[in-house]
C-alpha cells in the first residue's frame, strides 16, 4: 500500500505535470502562425455570421411591416410597397384635387418607380374599360417647384408648403410642351393620349385626382 507521503508526492507531480502541459500549449498557441490564422478565420466567420443575422433581421422586419400593412377602406394597395391609392371621380384643378385628397387624409399620387406607374396605369385602364369616363386625364402630385417652365418638377402635397420630394424616376410623354405658346404648363397629368405617361398642363384645367396614403 502506498504511504501517505507517496500519495502526496504523486498528486504534486500530477499537478506540476498539468501546469507544464498548459504552459506548453499556451506557448505553442501564442507563438503559432497556424493558431493566429485559425483565430483570424474564426473572427471572420463571427463577423460574417453577424452580418447574415442583421440581414435576416432586416428581411424579417420588412416582411412583418408588409404583412401587417393595410389600406384604409376604399383605397387599393400598390403591390410591393406600403402605399395605397384611390382614384376619385369628377374634375378638379390641381389645387382643388389636393384638397379633395386631403379631405380623405391623403395627397395627390407620388410615383417612385416604373412598376408603380405601370400599376396605376392598369388601374386607370380598368376604370376606363369599365365605362367610367374613358379617356380622362388624371392628376398626380408632380408640379414644378415654381410657376416657371424653366423650373423642375417635384412631388408636392401642396402648391406652397407641404411636403416636397424629388422625382426618383420619370415617365414623361414626349415632348412636354411648357414654353412658347404653352407658358403655364406647371402641373403633371396622366393622359390617355400619351398612354398615361406624364404630360405637363396648366394647373387650372379639370382632371380627376389620384390620391395616395400615406
Ligand atoms: Ca404638355
H-E order:
HHEEHEHEEEEEE
Ligand inventory: calcium ion
End-to-end distance, in Å? 89 Å
- Overall number of domains: 2
- What characteristic shape results from the CA principal axes? elongated
CATH topology of the largest domain: Mannose-Binding Protein A, Chain A
In round numbers, the mean pLDDT is: 86
Tell me the name of the CATH class of the largest domain: Alpha Beta
CATH architectural type of the largest domain:
Roll
Helical percentage = 40-55%
| The named CATH superfamily of the largest domain | Mannose-Binding Protein A, subunit A
Number of strands: 9
Most strands sheet: 9 strands, mixed
> Tally the helices: what do you get?
4
Question: Would you write up a description of this structure?
Answer:
This protein has two domains: 4-67; 71-213, Mannose-Binding Protein A, subunit A (Mannose-Binding Protein A, Chain A). The chain is 42% helix and 17% strand. It is built from four helices and nine strands, in the order H-H-E-E-H-E-H-E-E-E-E-E-E. It has helices spanning 4-31, 33-68, 94-103, 114-129, and strands at 76-77, 84-87, 107-108, 138-144, 153-156, 164-166, 187-190, 198-201, 208-213. Strands 1, 2, 3, 4, 5, 6, 7, 8 and 9 form a nine-stranded mixed β-sheet that branches. A hairpin with a 7-residue loop joins strand 7 (187-190) and strand 8. Helix 1 (4-31) crosses helix 2 (33-68). Residues 7-13 and 19-26 have low confidence and may be disordered.
